[in-house]
Amino acid sequence: MMRACTVDELPPGESVRIPGPAPIAVFNADGELYAIDDTCSHQDASLAEGWLEGCFVECPLHAALFDLRTGMPSCLPAKKPVRTYAVLVEDGVVYVHADNADNAEGQEDAA
Amino acid sequence: MRSVAIVGASLAGARALQELRGQGFDGEVVLIGEEPHRPYDRPPLSKEFLAGAIDRDALDLLDTEDDLGVTYRLGVRAERLDPANGRLTLSDGGEVFADGVVIATGGRARTLPGAEGVAGVHVLRTLDDALRLRAELSGSPRVVVAGAGFVGAEVASTCRGLGLEVTVLEALDAPLSRVFGPELGAVCARLHAEHGTRLRCRSVVSGLTTVDDGPRGRRVTGIDLADGGHLPADVVVVGIGMSPAADWLIGSGLTVGNGVHTDRGLVTELSNVVAIGDVARYAGERGDRLRHEHWTNATEQAGVAVTNLLAGRTVRGHTASGYVWSDQYGGRIQVAGHPAPGDRLVLVEGTTEDSSFAATFERDGGTVGVFALNNAKLFNRLRRQALRPPAPVA
Hints:
The structure holds two protein chains of two kinds.
Chain A: E1 2-6, E2 15-18, E3 24-29, E4 32-37, E5 51-53, E6 56-58, E7 65-67, E8 84-90, E9 93-97, H1 104-110
Antiparallel strand pairs in A: 1-9, 2-3, 3-4, 4-8, 5-6, 6-7, 8-9
Chain B: E1 3-7, H1 11-22, E2 28-33, H2 48-51, E3 70-74, E4 78-82, E5 87-90, E6 95-97, E7 100-103, E8 107-109, E9 118-119, E10 121-123, H3 127-135, E11 142-146, H4 150-161, E12 165-169, H5 177-180, H6 182-194, E13 198-200, E14 205-212, E15 218-225, E16 230-232, E17 235-238, E18 242-244, E19 260-262, E20 273-275, E21 280-283, E22 289-290, H7 295-311, E23 324-328, E24 331-337, E25 344-349, E26 357-363, E27 366-373, H8 376-385
Parallel strand pairs in B: 1-2, 1-7, 2-3, 7-20, 9-15, 10-17, 11-12, 11-17, 12-13, 19-21
Antiparallel strand pairs in B: 4-5, 5-6, 8-18, 14-15, 15-16, 21-22, 23-24, 24-27, 25-26, 26-27
Keywords (chain A): 2Fe-2S, Dioxygenase, Iron, Iron-sulfur, Metal-binding, Oxidoreductase
Protein name (chain A): Bifunctional 3-phenylpropionate/cinnamic acid dioxygenase ferredoxin subunit
GO molecular function (chain A): 3-phenylpropionate dioxygenase activity
């Protein structure tokens, strides 16, 4: 489990980036918290810097849209999903279950 | 409409194919491309692909498993359009008949006079251009880049990343200053300086010096400058823009001049022929003629043009977002809107001396453009919230 930030640091409409070899982006979409791979599946861009609209984030580089609930892209140029992660809030701190990652391939099969 | 020919296996051509299928066209589609390659993405050619960090497969715009029901005619050039008979004549003598035509032929990179056939002198537009250039970047060549636009700057950045000695020549006082003004031109100049690239502004190339290269002809040894100077070079990369590939349409009845002329919806004089991407010179909202040479523009135009092609008339007009980006020296420049010289630059965050900042271009009391260096989040917010929406189409 990875610590992302405190609840106060992630108000609605905001995002944080957990750096690392495979950085993770955590979003507060109108009160619901979501975590996905931070790096766009199309080209190198940080989704934490993207525009949040409902439970979709738009990549800041080429405007690919990802559904925060599933990681699936809903428009070009992205064609592959990003991984999603479970988010947990405990004692005012936001944690991400990075070891409990949904499998991106599995999601694709299920779609 | 039962069949459509897309001329140009480019980003614009690939997006046109996807739009045709996405918008419900189930007829025959033929995609004609002069290059032997299936449609590929060009932006990485000056960056990751040139550096050897990604391979050809990563550039594919259309997955082989995507069944879009297209017939490829690759490695042949469309040489003539005979609209009365819906006929395209190809360079191999073949013919393609179609009810609708999407012109997406892009353009050709300009080069220096006298550069034709001289080994070591490169342009960078196609995959094969990138492969040829990449093959010459081993063995510590001295690289001179003519032109400090985005392509030139990105090539310089990649070459510095490979540890090469790089000089960039620019005719203007500062890179891109004609588009972004002197303050942001200075920012582009600073990026070169901070990363060990020598930038020589107000440098006009007057010629190439060459040496006999045996049976292969001649090979470049350097560049002569108009001020009398000379720069030795093992590899010269020319990044001085492109010319739209529209000459093949002369005689077709379509208006050609710095591209193919279209209405505001990318439709030519013929309702069953549309033009998109770098080659399309469309009617703007102020009675002007516009043509854009950008990745995003090609993708935006494809959807509009296909809607109008399938409708048989112009039901949608195109409004360009003007979005461009450039990755250089580990940083990212993003621009949106339509800035012009004389606009007032207003910094929203940071200063132009900083490694990250965002600014707007102001004109007549409104925001007409957004510029950011390493500030994607604020850039996208300004783009949505500050940028004046384009004037409504009458």
